[in-house]
Amino acid sequence: MNTHNTHPDSEQLDSLRAGLLDDTPQLKADIEAHLADCLSCRAHYDMAGHLLPGRLPVATPTVQLDRIRRQALETRSSRQHLSAFALAAALALVAVLLVKPDLQDASRETRVAQTATEDTPALYEDLDFYLWLADHKSDSDSAT
Amino acid sequence: MNPLEAGIPACKTVSVQTSLNDFLAGVQNRAYHVAYGALWEREISLDVVQESMLRFVEYYRDKPEKEWPALFRSVLNSKINDQRRKRLLGNTTRKLLSLTGLGFSRGDEDSGMLENELPQAVHDEGFSQPEAGATDGELKGKIESALCKLAERQRQVFLLREQLGLSIRETAETLGISENSIKQHHFRALRAMRKSLAEVWEHEHA
């Protein structure tokens, strides 16, 4: 193909741009050589310059994307802190549950001791009755 | 314990955080254009990237770094699919409501999208703003319209290759498809764009 005399058609130009001519290096080299010399074909190749980098009407919102990235990483950090607090709280709860049976036993012993101290005065309150009963019993025994 | 060993977990955390930041900084533009190519809406695409990053950081940061690209791609595709489902559900609901005559005024009905329709792109740096040159604005509008008409995959490849200037291999890695598929999609996208904009190109070329 005499590329310097023949203009490649748009399909060949698009094939070159898309990389479909990578398997045919000779044809690719010919068209590239032609493009280097032919301004008209060069303009056709990059669609009148509209396919040059950054010329498409599609902006990349870099600032917003940077912010989003930072937020994602910070959210992870705050979640790490929260999970540390949650772990500490869980450990504290387990500790309380483990210690609680001992506390319950201790309170039961205190209650028993309290009951014992409360019984003693009741015994002495009824002492008169037992004395009377003893006298009465001895009287009845002597009567029989 | 060896004091040097005691410092290792903290150093490792900082190292992972730095690697993660570098990784996300490297993929954020690609992720946006993949989402934008699929959904063709700026704000929703940003939301998708945000959700993908949050999920990735939360669940996959402890995975080996060499697995990160594939994992992030998987998360991103999942989020894009979620948005597609939401859009489909919204459109179906809107259509049903409009059929039954409930809930929507005529204006809302007119602005409702059909299942496969994409919204008109909205940019902050809108080229269709009145202060921009009328001819330039019209031209950009026509290019946007032509991009909108492309098949989803073609549009993704086109944006990654032409807007971000990625190589065929990088584009293939980003989208998780073969290099030959990238070439074919790119070629078809170029043909479609040339066909849609034949009038414009011929005019400018003349």
Brief account:
Chain A is mainly alpha-helical and 144 residues long. Chain A has 2 domains: 1-58, no CATH class; 62-119.
Percent range for helical residues of chain A? over 70%
By secondary-structure content and strand pairing, the structural class of chain B works out as mainly alpha
Question: Mean pLDDT of chain B, nearest integer?
Answer: 81
Assign the structural class of chain A, choosing from mainly alpha, mainly beta, alpha/beta, alpha+beta, or little secondary structure.
mainly alpha
SSE string of chain A: HHHHH
Judging from the principal axes of the Cα atoms, what is the shape of chain B? globular
Roughly how many Å apart are the termini of chain B?
79 Å
Low-confidence blocks of residues of chain B: 1-7, 106-116, 122-134
Task: Give the oligomer, counting copies of the same chain as homo and different chains as hetero.
Answer: heterodimer
Annotation field: number of helices of chain B: 10
Task: Note the beta-strand portion of chain A.
Answer: under 5%
Rg of chain B over CA atoms, rounded to whole Å, is 21 Å
Low-confidence stretches of chain A: none
Give me the strand/helix succession of chain B.
HHHHHHHHHH
Largest sheet of chain B: none
Radius of gyration of chain A: 51 Å
Descriptive overview:
The complex is a heterodimer of chains A (144) and B (206). With 144 residues, chain A is an all-alpha fold. In chain A, 76% of the residues lie in helices and 0% in strands. Chain A has 2 domains: 1-58, no CATH class; 62-119. Chain A has helices at 10-18, 25-37, 39-45, 62-125, 127-143. Chain B folds into 2 domains: 1-119, no CATH class; 121-206, Arc Repressor Mutant, subunit A (Orthogonal Bundle), CATH 1.10.10.10. Chain B contains 10 helices and no strands. The radius of gyration of chain B is 21 Å and the shape is globular. The chains are: A mainly alpha (144), B mainly alpha (206). The interface between A and B is large, with 37 and 52 residues.
